[in-house]
What does this fold into?
Amino acid sequence: MPQREVHLRDYLEILWKHDFVICLSFLLILGTALIVSVRLPKSYAASTLILFIQPPSSPPVSSTSLFQSVLSGGVDRSEMETVGQRFSSTSMLASAIEKLEDADIRGARHLPSIPSLKQNLKARIRSDTRYIELSLRLREDEGGERNAALLMNQLIREMQALRSRAERAKADHRREFLDQKLTELLQQVKKQEEAALQFVRKSGSPATLYPRLSSLLEHHTRLRDAQMQIERELGGAQLELKHLRKEIENYPAYVKLSETTSHDPIWLFQMEKVADLESQRIGLAQQVGENSPEIKALDAQIADIRSNLKSFVAAKGVTSSTQGPSSLHWRIQDQFINLQLMILRSENSLTQIQLQLDGVTRELQHLVTEIPENEMYFEKLRREIDFIHELKKEIYKQSLEAEILIAESDYWRSESGHRRISGGIEVVDPPVPQKIPVSPRIKFVAIVAGIIGCIIGISVALLIEYFGNTYRLAADIQSELDLLHLGTIATLKEREQSFPALSEDYRTVAANIDLSQPEIRKQILMLASCDGDEDVSAVTANLGTTLASVKEAVLIVDCNLSQPVQHQIFDLSSDADRTGVFEADQMDWEDVIQHTDIPDLDLLSASSLSSHPIDFLRLPRLQTFFQQLRQRYELILIDAPPILPTADSLILSVHCDAVVLVVGLDRTTREMLRMSRARLENTQTPVLGFIET
It folds into this structure.
């Protein structure tokens, strides 16, 4: 089944239903609270407002906040809370009560005990202000508002006197202490300054030592740079000297300057002779031919000369050369000598620079060893002197503050006639007795009691409804028993006030009956309730009237034989002496049908059926009777008796097409509705749904 929807109006209907319980709870709680409030003892209160001007003992103030803290009225919040708590201390209350008793104030003996006073005395600091609000509440038998005002006045005087004495004493003590401390600091400053002067005269100031140290460091740096430069040059010269030694070995001191080559004269003569013979052979060969004897003789002669020339090959030329000193050798030799001289000079320079470096290093070591000791000692003297000067300035400020506090205290004491100021506390609003009791607060109690009474009443109503045996909503029946809600019919009282709304209700029910379960035949419908408390007869009559406007022929059969009322509803006569249809065989049932003033609506009253209801329900002719009615009328509504008290409705339901239950939510219990549904299911007669009344 879908989740049912519950509206606010449903709960309002429940509350309206149990309005008596809610009103009773409201009146009981309200009356009880008012009676208790009236019987409670009355309490009265007195209150005062004081201004916290300054604390009695100000902490040391820095130079930046001296005038802001003292002259502009800056206040420590924690000091205000301490003052507020001190008002309710046991010693302060005991002293105030003792002063009142010594002054023989009337009513002081009625004051409650100190623990009770501490509980009723409230000190509240207003946020973001310097105001403290004091309030004291006392019962009427404890002196009421008068004793509260007297005690608060005495407490304020005690606090002012206490803070004033403490302020004056501490200011005087601070001033004396600061004067003594200032004298000691001046002596220490003088002593430290003399020690610094003696140190400067003896060892010099670090201001002069640092320039000297800087000069020595610069000189040492220059010497180191020169030493490194000479060492680099010396290293290069030594490498070049080594290279020149190798070069001298490769180049000799003397080299060949020139060389001349000449040939042997005999070899030259033989060569010329061969050339001449070859020339002759060429000329002769042209003349005599190659095979002539002359040519052969010349060839033999040329060959002989050439064989002789082979012996002159080794001696074909004579060579002569000239030697002199090598310029490259002697140039390298000069460079070698110059490099040796430069190396000697560089070594001498290195020796001199090293001597200077040793001297500068020793001087630096001595100066570096001396500077930290002198500087530390001098810095220590300087810091001590600066600290003493700062402390001296702070003591001057504290002394000024003490003078200001004493002057302000004297000023407010002289102005006490105009403003009630003492000890840094000003009474803005003096304690005044309040004639109106602060408790019990009748209006507040009445409002709270009324709210609680309403809540309890509503809770009881909801609990009654929750644990009650009746259904609260039609949706509960629909979801629990799976019955269709055909509509809601207004009560008789509502019916008299709004008849058009009532007609609309019946039209809605008639429409829902026609539309529900279309597979079921709906010619004969039985309307019945569970136990008879519901107005089934009225519902049947009005529903028949509504359906007669849309049906051709509608018949209402009053089967509530024990309590028939349909003839009264339609204002028709009832012949109680008439013999029933089922008792007189000769009487036709059509003769006893009565026509109502409503067109197409007829009535068959209970007196026309039978004078003995039990015999009527047992007759075998009952089935035939309903069959005959089906042939005559389009719709037949049966006003049946209750289902649970008797079995009449169950017997009638067998002859009906469907059953419609009439349920009153505030009258029909869950158990009755479940039993009625179960009995109808045993008859296998369909249940179209239920009508809520």
Summary: The mean pLDDT is 76. The CA atoms of residues 76 and 82 lie 10 Å apart. The radius of gyration is 72 Å. The first strand starts at residue 43 and ends at 52.
